[in-house]
Amino acid sequence: MMTDDWFDEARFGMFVHFGLYSAAARHEWVQNYERLTDDDYRQYFDHFDPDRFDARAIARTAKASGMGYVVLTTKHHDGFCLWDSQLTDFTSRVAVDRDLVREFVDAVRAEGLKVGLYHSVIDWHHPDFTVDWNHPRRDDENAHALNEGRDMGRYREYLHGHVRELLTGYGQIDYLFFDFTYPEEKDGWAGKGPADWDADALLALCRELQPDMLVNDRLGIPADFVTPEQYQPTAPIERDGVPLTWEACQTLNGSWGYHRDNTDQKSATMLTQMLVDSVSMGGNMLLNIGPDGRGAIAPRDAATLGEIGDWMALHRDAVVGAGHAPFAPPREGVYTRRGDRLYLHLFAWPLGFVHLPGLAGRVSYARLLNDGSWLKTSVSDPQQQADLMTPAGEDEGTLTVHLPVQRPDV
Ligand code: FHN
To answer: So what EC number does this one have (predicted)?
Structure first.
């Protein structure tokens, strides 16, 4: 029986997109965007050299950032396998004599974190994966002819065989992120959906091999958690009025794979606000890093994660093990709740008193700081977490808000 207790507790995880595309350093879809043939793309295999891929450093960085689980791409859409698969020679074992999944699961476990794997149901390398509107060969002048002889049944066997390898060869796997299904037709080309993967059989295989493992929704059939991507839901996600377990996956800069020229780095303030926003709605955030072509965490990503880790060190209790609070939040921020503690996260510094409509009847205004003083600061410091103590015996109608933050003037 899968249990999402650890998942709801962790609230915050690290996504790691690493593969041949990291060496291209132009987005994990480079093979598709640039319509690279297998031969063109082969150069990244021939020159793959992850000498700075240090799974232990990645796991330690995740832990220091306050994350409770780490998810590695075992195979992305390009079909390159980061483990010692016996079903293909398009693997890291063949390329550099390393089983990077083995290194990863050992390192994550050594840091006491939960192990997550990502696996693409799309495979642009496999000879039986039929060309469709998502395929790099779609624009090839003889792409339609390419599908003669291709057999998705053989590809399904390969895909299911891969999942069996990953779920039997690496100990307990806590989380599996399948990616992704697109049933719609487009430009005269077919899409692909659950039937193409035999999703029901694949999910049953997961349940058989790893009964406690959480599986996401991207086989195209319901499973254990829902995966909004690159956006923030605006309310707790429910189905038929029942709250669903969900996790928003986000990039640091708009690219999942390492992108050398991408400077759109989200700030640590924005990312922590996205994290607490997700938790306030009962969800998780999976924050991605794209290690560079040698496997190292990019310095700008390490710096951002370091700032987030500093914030989490102060405010961990308002995130880890916390969740949705049934009170209307003030306009300046959101609530998260852990047990009988209510946490107010101020995204914008209040213009005056913070009005807490959701707590009407018990409190109506909050003084900042429990000594009644005002913390003088600029709006650039709104990254505060106020630990709302429901006062016992204090004056009715006022609520002290504890801002456990270093006063800027000391
Ligand atoms: O196409 C992939 C993309 O490259 C990336 O892996 C994301 C991560 O959730 N999933 C797909 C797009 O939804």
So the answer is: 3.2.1.51
Q: Which residue has the tokens 């600061």?
A: 377
Residue 78 Cβ < 6 Å to ligand 1: no
What are the angstrom distances between the C-alpha of 44 and each of 36, 39, 137, 392?
Answer: 11, 10, 18, 64
Distance from C-alpha of 289 to C-alpha of 292, rounded to nearest angstrom: 9
Q: How many Å apart are CA 305 and CA 62, to the nearest integer?
A: 8
Q: How many CB atoms lie within 10 A of CB 46?
A: 9
Ligand 1 in reach of 38 Cβ (< 6 A)? no
- d(CA 27, CA 374) in angstroms, rounded, equals 47
Answer yes or no: is the C-beta of 226 below 6 A from any ligand 1 atom. Answer: no
Task: Compute the distance between CA of residue 319 and CA of residue 283 in angstroms, rounded to an integer.
Answer: 10
Query: CA 344 to CA 340: how far, in whole Å?
Result: 13
Q: Does 180 contact ligand 1 (Cβ within 6 A)? A: yes
DSSP bridge partners of 289: 16
DSSP reduced 3-state for 107: helix
180 CA → ligand 1 middle, Å: 7
247 lines ligand 1 (CB under 6 A): no
Cα of 257 vs centre of ligand 1, distance in Å, is 10
For residue 116, give the nearest of 32, 61, 174, 75 by alpha carbon.
Answer: 174
Q: Is any ligand 1 atom within 6 A of the Cβ of residue 28?
A: yes
Nearest Cα residue to 116 out of 10, 256, 274: 10
Gap from CA of 338 to ligand 1 centroid (Å)? 32
Rounded to an integer, what distance in angstroms lies between the CA atom of residue 170 and that of residue 173? 7
| pLDDT tens digits, 319-361 | 999 999 887 887 778 888 887 677 778 776 666 556 665 554 4
User: Helix H segments across 120-261?
Assistant: 143-146, 152-168, 194-197, 199-209
The whole-angstrom separation of Cα 357 and Cα 350 is 14
User: Tens digits of per-residue pLDDT, 125-145?
Assistant: 999 999 999 999 998 888 889
Q: Coil, strand or helix: which one is 12?
A: strand
> Which tens digit of pLDDT belongs to each residue from 77-91?
999 999 999 999 999
Q: Give the nearest ligand 1 atom to 118 CA.
A: 6
Torsion, Cα of 310, 314, 319, 321 (10° steps): 120
- Residue 387, pLDDT > 70, answer no
Residues near 217 by beta carbon (within 8 Å), at least 6 away in sequence: 223, 225, 226, 227
| Eight-class DSSP state of 358 | G
pLDDT at residue 24 is higher than 90: yes
